[in-house]
UniProtKB/TrEMBL annotation:
The lineage of its organism: Bacteria, Pseudomonadati, Pseudomonadota, Gammaproteobacteria, Chromatiales. This is Ice-binding protein C-terminal domain-containing protein. InterPro entries: Ice-binding_C (IPR013424). Residues 219-243 form the Ice-binding protein C-terminal domain. Residues 1-22 form the signal peptide. Pfam families: PEP-CTERM. It comes from the Bacteria. It comes from Nitrosococcus halophilus (strain Nc4).
């Protein structure tokens, strides 16, 4: 009986040790706070993190501007090397099975597909500031482009919540714009909203925001571990049944 209990305990500990830690991070970007730029801009960001993989979903949620399009999206992360190296090396869409060479991060699974990445880079307008990563849509027709999703993989270890929550903010030299850990440049905005009823508003603007903890961490067992655990339980059941027959 003690052997059975010990075997069950070992299986349980193996299940916990082999599970991946899941973290949810979100952000709500708002703007534009500058005079002469449309207000009531909103962009929602959800990041689903498991281990070294972060799944990003960015959605423009601004009904006041029916023709709005997402032109650029940018974000910062906490420096994993504390300034002792160049952390923001990256590769896009590496071949299957590739470890992305010497890059610290790689990006893949873009939807829509035609996005370019630069690091570091200067967003369009809004003064001068330099985020860690900037995505720019490269297609010829970006009308009503209101969403972006992609996968980010770290080659330098698993992500943790503080990689996002403790990221620095990019500060614009345009004091009226402010700062944020992430942001979006939006185009095709209505030029006659409540801010500029005479139609004198700019047709572009920025939405800025900060990360927040969306829940977690929680333990998510890997499928292979669940299969192993189930096999172990089945084996324990068969052993117990055999002992009953022999008794």
């Amino acid at each position: 009986m003690y052997k059975l209990l010990w075997s069950g305990l070992l299986l349980f500990l193996g299940l916990i040790a082999s599970s991946a830690q899941a973290v949810l991070i979100n952000a709500q970007l708002t703007g534009d706070g500058r005079a002469g730029n449309p207000d009531l801009l909103q962009v929602d960001v959800l990041i689903d993190v498991t281990g070294n993989v972060a799944e990003w979903d960015i959605t423009v949620d601004t009904t006041n501007h029916p023709d709005i399009k997402l032109d650029e999206f940018y974000f910062n992360l906490r420096d994993p090397f504390n300034g002792n190296s160049s952390p923001w090396t990256f590769e896009t869409n590496p071949p299957a099975g590739s470890n992305s060479g010497n890059a610290n991060f790689y990006f893949t699974d873009f939807d829509p597909a035609d996005w370019l990445i630069d690091s570091p880079a200067d967003p369009v307008g809004g003064g001068t500031f330099t985020p860690n990563f900037l995505f720019e849509y490269s297609g010829s027709n970006v009308n009503n482009l209101t969403s972006l999703s992609f996968t980010m993989v770290s080659n330098i270890g698993d992500f943790v919540a503080d990689d996002f929550l403790m990221a620095p903010s990019s500060v614009s030299t345009d004091n009226d714009l402010g700062s944020g850990q992430l942001g979006a440049h939006l185009q095709s905005l209505a030029v006659n909203d409540a801010t500029c009823p005479d139609g004198s508003c700019s047709d572009s603007g920025f939405a800025l925001g900060v990360y927040s903890d969306g829940g977690g961490p929680q333990q998510i067992p890997e499928p292979s571990v669940l299969a192993l655990f189930g096999t172990g339980l089945l084996g324990l059941g068969l052993i117990g049944r055999r002992r009953k027959r022999l008794a």
